[in-house]
Amino acid sequence: MKPDPAPALLRPQGDHRRYPSLLTDLYELTMMAGYLEKGMAEKHAVFDLFYRKNPFEGGYAVFAGLEPALDYLEGLSFQPDELEYLQSLRIFKPQFIEFLREFRFRCKVTAPPEGTVVFANEPLLTVEGSLAEAQFVETALLNIINFQTLVATKAARITHAAAGAPVIEFGLRRAHGPNGALSCARAACVGGVRSTSNVQAGMVYDLPVRGTHAHSWVQAFSDELTAFRAYADVFPDNTILLVDTYDTLKSGLPNAITVARELRSKGHELNGIRLDSGDLAFLSRESRRMFDEAGFPLVKIVASNELDEFVIDSIMDEGGQVDIYGVGTKLATCAGSGGSALGGVYKLVSVNGLPKLKLTSDIAKATLPGSKQLMRALGPDGRFIQDIICLEQGDPCGGKLVYDPCNPLQHTLLPAHVTLHNMRQVVMEKGSRTLPPETLKVMAERSARELAALPQGCLRFINPHRYKVSISGRLNDLRNRLIDQVRRSMGHD
Prior knowledge:
Elements: H1 26-37, E1 44-50, E2 61-62, H2 66-74, H3 80-88, H4 94-101, E3 108-111, E4 117-118, E5 125-130, H5 131-136, H6 138-162, E6 167-169, H7 177-190, E7 195-196, H8 199-205, H9 215-219, H10 224-234, E8 240-242, H11 248-265, E9 272-275, H12 280-293, E10 300-303, H13 309-317, E11 324-327, H14 329-332, E12 345-351, E13 354-355, E14 372-378, E15 384-391, E16 401-403, E17 411-413, E18 419-422, E19 425-429, E20 432-433, H15 440-452, E21 469-472, H16 473-489
Parallel strand pairs: 6-7, 6-11, 8-9, 9-10, 10-11, 15-21
Antiparallel strand pairs: 1-5, 1-12, 2-4, 3-5, 3-19, 12-13, 14-15, 14-18, 16-17, 16-21, 19-20
C-alpha cells in the first residue's frame, strides 16, 4: 500500500490542496478576527484534541486520520474566491481579509502514529503556535480525526470478532457521501479491514478491491443456472456466485456446485459463493458440507447482510463456516451502542506559557491544563500496563503516585520497574511535516500489535476491562490549584 495521496474528490477544482480553507465553522473565523483586532493573534497558544468516552461502550479506540489532517494543515491557505465570499458576508473588516490573504499554518503538531491504541482523556493531537492559527484549525481537525478514529475503532472490533478471517469493507452505498466513503475505506484499513468494494478507494489508497455480483444479475437471466454459467464464462478465474436470490439450499447451492464442476472440466476453479440473507451460521455450515461432499473443499464462503462485530461473534459461536465477511452499513455508519460519533473536543490548555483550565460543575469534564506528554507504562513482556499523562517538563512518574483524571481521590502507585514509552512525536514543525508518510499497511500492522498487547478483557464487546489512564502528581496538583483559583475568583470558598 502506497503512502496516503490526496483523493481527487476532496480537492477544489484546479487546486492542489486536499481540503478547502472554508471547511470550518463560522465562529473559528469570528474568533480569529477578534484575536487580530484585540492584538492577541500572535499570542503563543497550546490546544489539545482528545475525547472523553471510548466509542461503542468499548475498551479502547484506534487513532486514525493523522495523515489527512497533516495534508489539510500543510496546504492551508485562502484562495481569492474564498476571500471574496467572506467579504460578501459583510461581517469582517478589510484588515482581516488582508490578514487571511497571507495566512498559512506554521504551528507545531504533536501526535501518536496512526494505528496507535488510545483511550479517553488522553491528548491525541496537540497544536502549538500562534493563537489565531491554532484556533482556526479546530473544526477541520475534529472533522477528520473524529470520523476516521471512529471507523478505525469499529473496524478493529469487527476484525477481532472475525478471528483471523478476512473482512471486506462493503460500505460505499451506505456511507455519508462520496468523501465519507473514501475516508471510511482508508480508516477501516488502519483498523484491520484490508480490502474494499470501493474502486475509487482502491485506486487512491492502493487497496485490494473485491466484489461479486448482485441479485439483479441472476434476475436478468431466464433462470439462476443460466445466470451463474454466464458469470463464470465471463470471469472463469474470479467467480464468486451469490446463491440466495431464490432458495439458497434447494437452488443456489446446487446450481453453484454444477457450475463448479463445469469450471473444473475447463481447467478453472470456482472461487466462492456469497450468502446475503437467512441464518448465516446454519447456511454456511450447510454450504461447507455440500461443497466438501462434492469435492470442492477450497471454495470460499463469503457472508454479508448487516454484519457487525456482534453478529460475526454469534456466527462464530454457533459454529459458522464463513471464510470471508463483507461488512457494509454497520462499518461505514459506525452503527452500534455508543457509536455514530466519537465526541472528540479541542481545548485551549495554555496561553503565553500560562496553563489554562476549562471548569464545569462536573470535575470529570474539567480539562487538563498545560503542555503535556503522554507516556505508556510497559511491563517486562512489553504488554501495556497503563497510560500516564504528565506535564511536558521535568515530570517523571516512575515509582510515584498517579491519579484518576476523572476522580482525583482515586490514586495508585506506579511500579518503579516499568518501562515508560513516550506515545507521541512531533509530526509537524512550523507548518511542515517532520516525518515521511507511512503506508496504510504499516498503520494496520501497528494497530494489530498494540491491540494484542492490551490487558486481558480490554477487547471484550460487553463490559470490557477498564484500562487505566492516570495523571501525574504534578499535573493533578496543577489542576487542583487552578480549580481553587477559579473558584476564588468567582467568590466561592
